[in-house]
Write a structure and sequence with these properties.
The protein is of the alpha/beta class and 155 residues long. It has a domain of 71 residues: 2-Layer Sandwich (Nucleotidyltransferase, domain 5), CATH 3.30.420.270. 23% of the residues lie in helices and 15% in strands. The protein contains 3 helices and 7 strands. Strands 4-3-2-5-6 form a 5-stranded mixed β-sheet. It has a two-stranded parallel sheet with strand order 1-7. Pfam families: ExbD.
């Protein structure tokens, strides 16, 4: 391969003329990096405690922008979001949150292995603390046979 250097007889300023076009390549690079950052960060912004929620056929309701989740794990430990708290500190921890308001909705998630009495105990703690706007969280879909109501036996 060879290259030749030719001498030009015309004006030297024409080789270095200003270009009035916008170079969008760096802009596209920045946008792609931001896209990757948001794709990685989006799953991290949800509550990710391993809880086996029961299913429900109820119509799903609109979720608020920043929901407050209280979760009861199978070992009966309680968490606000992903932070573990003691039951005696549950209301105090909710009151200490930045958006503390007794009028906000508290979304209660309980594993299907949690006894009904334990769920009611946490509901009673929240009610006694002044949180009366509570919503129970379940998975969308058809309930499984184990969760289906059983008809009472006829005498």
């Amino acid at each position: 391969m060879g290259a030749s250097i030719a001498e030009h007889d015309h004006d030297d300023d024409s080789d270095f003329a200003e270009s009035h076009e916008i170079n969008v390549t760096p802009f596209i690079d920045v946008i792609l990096v931001l896209l990757i950052i948001f794709m990685v960060a989006a799953p991290l912004s949800t509550v990710d405690l391993p809880i086996d929620l029961p299913t429900s056929t109820a119509t799903p309701q609109k979720k608020p922008d920043k929901p407050t989740y209280v979760s009861i794990k199978p070992d009966l430990s309680v968490a606000i979001g992903e932070d573990m708290v003691k039951r005696v500190d549950l209301v105090r921890s909710l009151d200490a949150m930045p958006d503390a308001s007794k009028e906000r909705y508290i979304f209660l998630r309980a594993d299907r292995a949690v006894p009904y009495g334990e769920l009611m105990n946490v509901l009673e703690i929240l009610r006694a603390g002044g949180y009366s706007k509570l919503k129970l969280v379940a998975l969308e879909g058809v309930p499984d046979a184990a969760a289906a109501p059983v008809a009472p036996a006829k005498p």
